[in-house]
Write a structure and sequence with these properties.
The chain is mainly beta. It has one helix spanning 73-84; strands at 8-14, 17-20, 27-36, 41-45, 51-55, 61-68, 94-100, 105-114, 128-141.
């Protein structure tokens, strides 16, 4: 089995935005992280030691995309942030699809909004920009690989 970031595509579309944010976009070494918003289960144990599970209906996720400081995609994302943040009619409409063509993984994220502007650093080395997004709906299928 072989993995390569070269097989990763991350296409985001929303008001004022259509962008590739993975291979070919000057991604930072740390790449992309997908985090579930909350635990899917809450276990409650009663005073007598008996318990129950509660299935939580939360399929939201946080996605962090890390780009090199010099990536042209940073300008696209900042322009989209500025546009989308001027009106609630434009906010929370981003859609992101991440695929790994080598492994067959597909993740689709809907109803996404920027979490905040990224931290901007001017330092000895250029470093990276971290863009964080909140998505209300996240669905992932992990492929069987090659």
């Amino acid at each position: 089995m072989v993995y390569s970031f070269l097989n990763i595509s991350a296409l985001m579309a929303g008001p004022g935005l259509v962008a590739n944010l993975a291979a070919g976009a000057a991604s930072a070494e740390e790449g992309i992280t997908i985090e579930a918003n909350a635990e899917k289960n809450v276990m409650t144990i009663g005073a007598d030691g008996k318990g129950q599970h509660s299935l939580i209906a939360d399929d939201a996720a946080k996605v962090t995309i890390r780009l090199l400081k010099t990536s042209p995609a940073n300008a696209l994302l900042m322009a989209a942030y500025d546009l989308q943040s001027i009106s609630s009619a434009l906010w929370g409409q981003n859609v992101l699809t991440i695929t790994d063509s080598g492994r067959g993984d597909v993740s689709v994220f809907q109803s996404g909004a920027f979490r905040k502007k990224p931290n901007i650093n001017y330092q000895k080395e250029a470093g990276m920009m971290e863009w964080e997004f909140d998505f209300i709906q996240a669905n992932t299928i992990l492929g069987a690989g090659q």
